[in-house]
Amino acid sequence: MSEAMLSIQGLQVAYGGIQAVKGIDMEVREGELVTLIGANGAGKTTTMKAITGIQACTGGDIRYLGKSIRGVPSYELLKVGLAMVPEGRGIFARMTILENMQMGAYLRTDTAAIASDVERMFGFFPRLKERQAQYAGTLSGGEQQMLAMARALISRPRLLLLDEPSMGLSPIMVEKIFEVVREISSEGLTVLLVEQNARLALQAANRGYVMDSGLITMSGDARQMLDDPKVRAAYLGE
Ligand code: ATP
Fold first, then answer.
1. With 80 as the cut, is the pLDDT of residue 139 above it?
2. Residue 227 lies in a domain
3. Where are the beta strands (DSSP E) in the chain?
């Protein structure tokens, strides 16, 4: 079989003497929606930060499109189609919504196609269209999440990393965000989704990994994981 789009081998990350990620293996194949679930402090965000070069790895390797990207900074990764929507979103508060979205296209020169992608995002998120001239810092948490996703998608990534998109959002906003995640995935975009809402994440995903105290403790087909008594007891509140 050909190499996965993203492949993580023996990844370790430490903060000082504290080992947050203790040698994990994961892969994401082209076209898949893969989710990484687990409790608070399991190491999910640290894993995402290591993939995107925000946090240094202390061991192992991360390969993307057949090459090691260990230590490659996020702006370089964006050039090769790896985009991330970070936890906490990282939008530009003192720019308008439209300007934030256009920032997502800063590596592109195809003006007409950018404009049509902006319209497509407004189709996904009508609320952003209504407020396009407003400063992004004035948006609600859910609206900022939508904007961060729109900005990442406008870069036309090959692989989208989403870190806890449901965090802090109302059930209606969470539903809306997941609707878009399912839609972009069904259109063929490869997605790695970190989520604490294990049920929604596994319902949307093809495959899942469970992380606990820095280790992958379980992995498999998302449907099967949803039916697994251990997953149900530990992560689905049953
Ligand atoms: P959450 O869902 O709460 O965000 P998570 O699974 O994403 O949890 P991480 O944020 O990756 O977990 O944290 C993993 C461990 O690393 C935790 O014990 C956390 O306290 C620790 N940690 C995270 N960031 C730092 C940091 N900058 N310095 C020191 N320790 C950190």
1. yes
2. yes
3. 6-15, 18-28, 33-37, 59-64, 67-68, 82-85, 159-163, 190-195, 207-212, 215-221
**Quick check: is 201 in a domain?**
yes
Q: Is the CB of 70 under 6 A from ligand 1?
A: no
Angle formed at CA 7 by CA 5 and CA 10, multiple of 5 degrees: 175
Task: Tell how far the Cα of 160 is from the centroid of ligand 1, in angstroms.
Answer: 21
Of residues 184, 177, 9, the one with CA closest to residue 83: 184
Asked casually if ipTM beats, i.e. exceeds, 0.85, the reply is: yes
* pTM more than 0.80: yes
Q: What angle do CA 204, 97, 162 make, to 5 degrees?
A: 25
Name the domain count of the chain.
1
pLDDT digits (tens, 9 = 90+) for 72-98: 999 999 999 999 998 777 889 999 999
CA angle, residues 44, 161, 107, in degrees to nearest 5: 140
